[in-house]
Design brief:
Layout (H helix, E strand, L loop, with lengths): L14 H10 L32 H14 L3 H19 L11 H32 L3 H6 L1
Helix pairs in contact: 2-3
Length: 145
C-alpha cells in the first residue's frame, strides 16, 4: 500500500491563484504542516429571535442619526439600548420586583418621575463625563506629547 504525498500550500498566491488551488485540492490532499489552527468566536447557545417593532418615521431617523454618529448599525444600537434598559429594569424597575404592591397607575407615575429626573440630570452628567475625559490624558495623548 502506497501513501499519497501531501500537497504543500503555496505561501503567496493571488486571489485567483488561491481560488484555483483550492478548487483542485481537498483538505485530505494538503500537508498538515501547512494547516494552522484558528481561533473561533464562542457561539451563543441561546438562539437570537427577531422582533418587529414599528416606530414613527421621526424616531427611525433619530435612531439612524445616532447610529451613524456612533459608528453602528441602527439595529445594533436599538438592541444595545434595549439591553441597557432591561438591565435598569432588573436593578430597580418592574423586573426587580414583579410582585409590586403599587397600582399600575402609581407604578407609571413613579417611573415617569424617575425618568424625568434622570433626563434632567443627563446634560450635566454628559458635560462632566466629557470634562473628565479631557482632564485625563489617554494613551494616544501620551504618545503624541
Amino acid at each position: 500500500m502506497t501513501t499519497r504525498r501531501k500537497t504543500r500550500i503555496p505561501r503567496q498566491m493571488t486571489d485567483a491563484q488561491a481560488a484555483d488551488f483550492y478548487d483542485r485540492h481537498s483538505l485530505e490532499d494538503l500537508d498538515p504542516r501547512d494547516i494552522e489552527p484558528i481561533e473561533t468566536p464562542e457561539i451563543s447557545t441561546s438562539p437570537a429571535i427577531g422582533l418587529t417593532v414599528r416606530f414613527p418615521k421621526e424616531i427611525i431617523e433619530q435612531v439612524r442619526t445616532a447610529a451613524k454618529v456612533l459608528g453602528k448599525k441602527p439595529t445594533q444600537l436599538v438592541r444595545e439600548w434595549t439591553i441597557e434598559r432591561l438591565t435598569l429594569e432588573q436593578e430597580a424597575g418592574s423586573l426587580a420586583r414583579p410582585e409590586s404592591t403599587l397600582a399600575p397607575s402609581q407604578e407609571r407615575a413613579v417611573r415617569a418621575r424617575v425618568i424625568a429626573s434622570v433626563n434632567k440630570q443627563l446634560p450635566t452628567a454628559i458635560r462632566q463625563a466629557l470634562q473628565d475625559m479631557q482632564d485625563t490624558p489617554t494613551d494616544s495623548h501620551k504618545a503624541t506629547a
